[in-house]
Design brief:
Strand content: 5-15%
Shape: globular
Radius of gyration: 22 Å
Order of helices and strands: EEEHEHEHEHHEHEHEHHEHHHHHH
Distance between the termini: 46 Å
Number of strands: 10
Helix content: 40-55%
CATH architecture of the largest domain: Alpha-Beta Barrel
CATH superfamily of the largest domain: NADP-dependent oxidoreductase domain
Largest sheet: 8 strands, parallel, barrel
Length: 383
């Protein structure tokens, strides 16, 4: 298992981190189960196997599996496994409504995890709104200082979902030890992106990666034209291996989280990370990945930039949302998922069928899109 230095600190963590948000479940959990619908035996077996194979970064959160993931992780880290792993969990900032809530929630998490300390503690899913309305308003940075001083947490970080400017603002506002960002070869310029990765690393932060497979969309229902490109590679790898290898190629990446629900996924990911060194991909291999990204992007049906100049629609049509659902379903070959998402708009009466072809949106669109035509096509494809 490859290991990398944790930012500015003199210890190493495994390149693969075990994300505990998609643990195996049972169809009919016992009413009195402490771990909800998590399959306790399988989940503990997977986690301990991973640790035995060298994975030493275990990531969970207050809300994963309906609040039961932390309980399961606490059980998995019993019997001497706690000392073999760095434990990461997250403060649900959306539950913070006064300055005392940080301490209350952290103490609750320590109890659920059956531990006296948390190694890596993150403020969960920060964006511009939660940064201002929760973190700054309720002095959560001072809370982190106190928790580090009294030993309840060792390293302070944040996970992030917003734009690059907001990311840089948050990075620069506090002496963070690490951060967690969404990154994969399709999201190079999305949210923090590769520029944010390098920005944080230059500041001495360890950078933990989430969504390396874009929620599984880079490995499931692979379009034929994408698979044809992968098949051209001189070294044969699965789509998951290619996605992980693209990330491991960055020396700035510290840990790559994978939400694993099957033992086979644990074994495959451990194998992938065994010899995944930074700067090891050849120019040919990088060009191959770039070609895959290009083909995915070419599958976009509507070149909407989500500028929202077309809103409000007089009939209430959620125009950018309609196009976002269509594009996502088309790009990643998940039309059933798209239809399920579109049903929410149908139920609200904000779907494309409400369009009366008044044309007001088209006169406002800076991309000069034929919005009326695309709305008709979207409705036909998603119903």
């Amino acid at each position: 298992m490859q290991r990398r230095k944790f930012g500015k600190f003199d210890f190493e963590v495994s390149l693969l981190g075990f994300g505990c948000m998609r643990l195996p479940t049972v169809a009919e959990p016992a009413p009195d189960s402490e771990v909800g619908d998590i399959d306790q035996e399988k989940a503990i077996s997977m986690l301990r196997y991973a640790i035995d194979q060298g994975v030493n970064y275990i990531d969970t959160a207050y809300n994963y599996h309906g609040g039961k993931s932390e309980v399961l992780v606490g059980k998995a880290l019993a019997d001497g496994y706690r000392e073999k792993a760095y434990l990461a969990t997250k403060l649900p900032v959306w539950h913070v409504n006064c300055e005392e809530d940080g301490d209350r929630l952290l103490n609750e998490q320590l109890e659920k995890l059956a531990t006296d300390w948390i190694d890596m503690y993150l403020l969960h899913a920060l964006n511009k709104g939660s940064w201002n309305d929760k973190v700054l308003k309720y002095n959560l940075l001072s809370f982190l200082d106190r928790a580090k001083a009294d030993g309840r947490i060792k390293y302070a970080g944040f996970s992030f979902h917003d734009d690059l400017d907001t990311f840089k603002e948050i990075v620069d506002a506090y002496d963070w030890d690490f951060c967690q960002i969404q990154l994969n070869y399709m999201d190079q310029n999305y949210q923090a992106g590769t520029e944010g990765l390098r920005y944080a690393a230059e500041k001495g932060l360890a950078v933990v990666i989430m969504e390396p497979l874009r929620g599984g969309r880079l490995v499931k229902n692979i379009p034929d034209e994408i698979q044809a490109v992968w098949d051209q590679a001189p070294i044969k790898r699965t789509p998951a291996e290619w996605a992980f290898r693209w990330l491991t190629n960055f020396p700035e990446v510290t840990v790559i989280l994978s939400g694993m629900g099957k033992m086979e996924e644990v074994q495959e990911n451990i194998k992938t990370m065994t010899d995944a060194a930074p700067n090891s991909l050849t120019e040919t291999e990088l060009e191959l990945i770039n070609r895959v990204q290009q083909i995915y992007n070419e599958r976009t049906r509507v070149k909407c930039t989500d500028c929202r100049y077309c809103l409000p629609c007089p009939q209430g049509v959620e125009i950018p949302r309609v196009f976002s659902i269509l594009n996502h379903a088309s790009v990643y070959n998940v039309m059933d998922e798209g239809k399920w998402q579109y049903k929410a708009l149908l139920d609200k009466g904000t779907d494309a069928s409400q369009c009366v072809q008044c044309g007001s949106c088209e006169s406002l669109c800076p991309q000069n899109l034929e919005i009326i035509k695309y709305l008709e096509e979207a409705h036909a494809a998603l119903t």
